[in-house]
C-alpha cells in the first residue's frame, strides 16, 4: 500500500518500517536521562555521597553507599553512552543492537535505583522509577 505524504511517497508494507524513529526517540530519552544523571554523579560525587549516606543511614545498606554510588554511576553512564550510539544506529542504519544493549543497561539501572528507593522507604521515588522501567520493558519487548 502506498500513500502520498507531505514529504513524498510513504510505503507502509511493514508495521515496523517506521520503528527506527520510535527507537531513536527512546534511545534519546535514555541517553539524556542517564548521561545527565551519571555525569552529575561524577561531577558532584561529594554532594551525591552526602545525600545518599543520609538517605540510607537507617538501612542495612548504610556501609555500602560509596560502592553503590560507583556501581550505579558506571551502569548509568554505560546506558547513556550505548543509548547515544543507539540513536545514530537507529537513524542511519535502521538497526538496534546498541539501542537494545543500552536499554538492557537502562533496565538494570532502574532495578538498582528501584531497589534502593524501596529499601530507603522512599515510595514516591520508587513509583517514579517504576514508570521509567515500564518504558524500558516495553522497548525491550519490541527490540527482542
Can you describe this structure?
This protein has a two-stranded antiparallel ribbon with strand order 1-2. With 144 residues, the chain is mainly alpha-helical. It has one domain. The N terminus is likely disordered. The chain is 76% helix and 6% strand. The two termini are 27 Å apart. Helix 1 packs across helix 4, helix 3 runs antiparallel to helix 4 and helix 4 runs antiparallel to helix 5. The relative contact order is 0.14. The chain contains 5 helices and 2 strands; from the N terminus they run ββααααα.
Concise overview:
This protein is mainly alpha-helical and 144 residues long. Helix content is 76%, strand content 6%. The chain has one domain (22-143).
Task: Quickly list its features.
about 5% strand; 5 helices; two-stranded antiparallel sheet; 2 strands; disordered N terminus; mainly alpha; about 140 residues
Amino acid at each position: 500500500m502506498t500513500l502520498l505524504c507531505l514529504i513524498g511517497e510513504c510505503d507502509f508494507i511493514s508495521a515496523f518500517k517506521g520503528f527506527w524513529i520510535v527507537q531513536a526517540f527512546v534511545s534519546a530519552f535514555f541517553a539524556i536521562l542517564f548521561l545527565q544523571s551519571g555525569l552529575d554523579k561524577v561531577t558532584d560525587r561529594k554532594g551525591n555521597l552526602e545525600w545518599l549516606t543520609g538517605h540510607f543511614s537507617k538501612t542495612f545498606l548504610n556501609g555500602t553507599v560509596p560502592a553503590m554510588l560507583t556501581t550505579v554511576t558506571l551502569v548509568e553512564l554505560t546506558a547513556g553512552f550505548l543509548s547515544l550510539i543507539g540513536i545514530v544506529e537507529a537513524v542511519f542504519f535502521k538497526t538496534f543492537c546498541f539501542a537494545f544493549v543500552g536499554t538492557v543497561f537502562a533496565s538494570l539501572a532502574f532495578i538498582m535505583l528501584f531497589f534502593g528507593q524501596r529499601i530507603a522507604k522512599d515510595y514516591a521515588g520508587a513509583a517514579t522509577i517504576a514508570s521509567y522501567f515500564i518504558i524500558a520493558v516495553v522497548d525491550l519487548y519490541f527490540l527482542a
